[in-house]
Amino acid sequence: MHRRVFALSAAAAIIAAACGGSSGDATATSATSTAAPTTTIAPAAPATTATSPPTSSTGVATETPTTTQAPPPTSIAESAPTETATTTSTAPVPAGETSAPGDPPGAETAGSPTDPEAGDGSSADPEAPTGTVSTGDTSAPSDPPGTETNGTPTDPDAGDGSSADPEAPAGTEPPAETDTPPDPETPTGPAGEAGLGDGFYPLLGNGGYNVLHYSIDLDVDPASNTIAAVTTITALAEQDLSAFNLDLSGLEVHDVTIDGVAAGFSRSGSELTVRPGLALAQGEEFSVSVDYSGTPEPIDDPGAPATALGWHWRDGVVYTLSQPSGAMTWFPSNNHPSDKATFEIRITVPTSTTAAATGLLVGESTAGGRTTTTWRMKDPMATYVTAVYIGDFDRVDHGRPNPAGPLLRDYVPDGAAPEVVEALAVTSQAIAFIEEVLGPYPFEAYGTLVLPFDLGLALENQSLPVHGRDILSPEIIAHEAAHQWLGNSVALEEWDDIWLNEGFATYLHLMFAAEHYGFDFGAEMRRLHQQLLFFAGTPPKGITVGELVGPSVYFRGAMTLHALRLHAGDETFFQILRAHYERSAGGTTNSEEFLGIVDEFAGPEAVDLVESWLYDEAVPELPERQP
Predict the structure, then answer these.
(1) What are phi and psi for residue 124, nearest 5 degrees?
(2) Angle at the Cα of 345 from the Cα atoms of 473 and 141, rounded to 5 degrees
(3) In the predicted model, what is the mean pLDDT of residues 373-379?
(4) Residue 144: is its pLDDT beyond 60?
(5) Nearest-CA neighbor of 386 among 458, 330, 338?
(6) What is the pLDDT of residues 209-267, one digit of tens each?
(7) Which of 94, 437, 466, 499 falls between 20 and 30 A from 253, CA-CA?
(8) pLDDT value at position 42?
(9) Strand 226-237 to 285-294 pairing
(10) CB of 346 closer than 8 Å to CB of 373
(11) C-alpha to C-alpha distance for 62 and 173, rounded to whole angstroms
């Protein structure tokens, strides 16, 4: 009995955290849990409606959000446009050592030793013992210049460097116009839109161009939580552009160049407007570099009402939690999952500190007591699942499960209990299970980074999810692994389709838990269906931004798939899942595309069934199981 209720008790823990507004996939299951707990799902508290004024700059729609068991956010790191100072500059970027996006991995660290585990010229400490790379105490270099936040006055009452309007949800109002007159030689013509018009986050992302590649150079002082950075973005103009925007919250921008030539720029809230000396033509590829520094500040977002988003600094440890809007706290970007790109991230930290990032480690060099590591993500990645981690971590290498499989490696706190590493051993089983359903793992590497403190959540950062030390149960490890296929490789076109991420990952993790613990999957799904009547009445396509990580998208989303499986039969159902993944792998999708696949394989009655689960207020009945 205990094992049979395990998946649902894990589900209940996720619901509790999600209703509290965690920024991703959360549970309260013990880090070293191996036996099934005896509790089952408890109904969530009734939803309470919180009205927020339609002002912000992270991109949230003016629709009133509904939150469950959590108040609306109390501060926004990018202030309302009318309260934000605007800065303008045309100064050139100082000479630096940033490599172009096309440079070979590790080119800036010529002569560094190569990592035999990577198999592609990546670097490593040749004296590190097999299996781990250990780090010691953090040493603090001198603070980098420019720690003053530019263009975002802080609210003295907020107490955390967040922005002035404590009631504003993120991103509903266009940025204020700059008071600085344009340069007489500034090109005229169309400018890119400040936002992509997402239904929940209309000002996240920017129009007029498509990002191809990010090259991010971070010099980090983890002792003072300051950075000096250059981000170079290679993009393709989708229209003629006299100006375009990037998303960046806080930090001080020193210079901006386009193709090596100084460009004008101005700031308003989280919008960084760039003005090239000569207008960019439609179809032109260009490179924009932003030189910036300061102390990154996390932001509040009504889509994650219980935790701030972006760059976090705690007990000398740096980690990033960015779903959905937080990436702009540490690098300028087109901050929306519909515009994915490849990445190369270089992190320079004191030699006694370990740095890690999403992607494959391809270069490492040390000079003057500081170590630079280079991380490559050659597959398209959304900004919100791009991550960096800095602290006292040990790397645990597991090799490749097969010659064509990913490099498996985990990062655990220095001196972590053996139970932490043991809990992560289930990873290879989870990947093998999901590969049977969806196909080969989509990226070059995979593993888990475990923080040295409780976090109450986990987030599916691409190729290297982050877990609090309290969130290491097998089904949650499987959940974050499933997101690598559905959520990361296949990303959302708009945030209101988040059930395509969470519902699919939840269904796969429940399937894995049934196999792992040996319980009756069908019986537990029937139990979950009954409990949906109490806590997940809002249909997945009827949620507001405040329910972005609520129970509906996780569990009614998962039950939508289970109802389809019962109606269509196993063979057709798994054909639908595989087609859904394969047709959008490396790109984006939406509910309409999924319904088209359902129609193709299972017919219009199956479409009607799925739509009833996605759109009807009442929880539908489960259909009879088909052979």
Answers:
(1) -165, 165
(2) 95
(3) 98
(4) no
(5) 330
(6) 999 999 999 999 999 999 999 999 999 999 999 999 999 999 999 999 999 999 999 99
(7) 466
(8) 27
(9) antiparallel
(10) yes
(11) 9
Q: How far is CA 548 from CA 13, 25, 89, 303, in A?
A: 17, 11, 38, 5
Structure tokens at 80: 């309302």
Q: Which amino acid is at 486?
A: L
DSSP β-bridge partners for residue 533: none
Asked whether 287 and 259 are in contact (CB, 8 A), the reply is yes
Q: Check residues 253 and 42 and name the one with the higher pLDDT.
A: 253
SS3 state of residue 604? helix
Question: With b meaning 16 or more CB within 10 Å and e meaning fewer, what string describes 243-263?
Answer: bbbbbbbbbbbbbbbbeeebb
Q: Phi and psi of 475, rounded to 5°?
A: -70, -30
Which burial class, exposed, middle or buried, applies to 156 when counting CB atoms under 10 A from its CB (0-12, 13-18, 19+)?
exposed
Angle at which helices 499-517 and 591-602 cross, to 10°: 60
Reported in sequence order, the residue ranges of 121-208 that DSSP labels E, i.e. its strands, are 132-133
User: What DSSP line would sit under 134-151, residue for residue?
Assistant: --------PPPS--SPPS
CB atoms near residue 126 (< 10 Å): 9
- Residue 443: predicted pLDDT: 98
- Tokens representing 320 are 């990033």
Residue 477 contacts residue 528 (beta carbons within 8 Å): no
3-state secondary structure of 131: coil
Tokens read off for 412: 């655990």
- Evaluate if residue 350 carries a pLDDT over 60: yes
The CA distance from 353 to 372, in Å, is 11
Q: Is the pLDDT of residue 7 over 70?
A: no
Q: Does position 30 have pLDDT exceeding 70, yes or no?
A: no
* 315 Rama class: left (phi>0) / alpha (psi -120 to 50) / beta: left
User: Could you give the residue ranges of the DSSP H alpha helices within 28-93?
Assistant: none
For residue 324, whether the previous peptide bond is cis, meaning omega lies within 30 degrees of 0, is: yes
* Token code pair at residue 313: 């600094």
Tell me the residue type at 440. Answer: P
Mean pLDDT rounded to a whole number for the chain: 78
Summarised one tens digit per residue, pLDDT across range 493-534 is: 999 999 999 999 999 999 999 999 999 999 999 999 999 988
The structural domains of the chain, ordered by start, are 6-71+484-615 (1.10.390.10)
CA distance 214 to 344: 6
